[in-house]
Design brief:
55 residues, 2 helices
């Protein structure tokens, strides 16, 4: 998922470089959403691992 975030971020940068501001804004918002989903899933994974490990 982090790979897709980086991909949309690069697409956003290239689109902004060539002046496609609408496409750049759309790709940046997709990258932002994917990044936050990645962070949430990562935290859930850490919590699940800590609970499974136990004392």
């Amino acid at each position: 998922m982090l790979y897709w975030t980086a991909t949309f971020f690069v697409i956003s940068l290239v689109a902004a470089l060539f002046g496609f501001t609408g496409l750049a804004a759309g790709a940046a918002s997709i990258a932002k959403v994917l990044f936050f989903i990645f962070i949430v899933l990562f935290v859930i994974s850490l919590i699940a691992h800590a609970l499974r490990r136990g004392p």
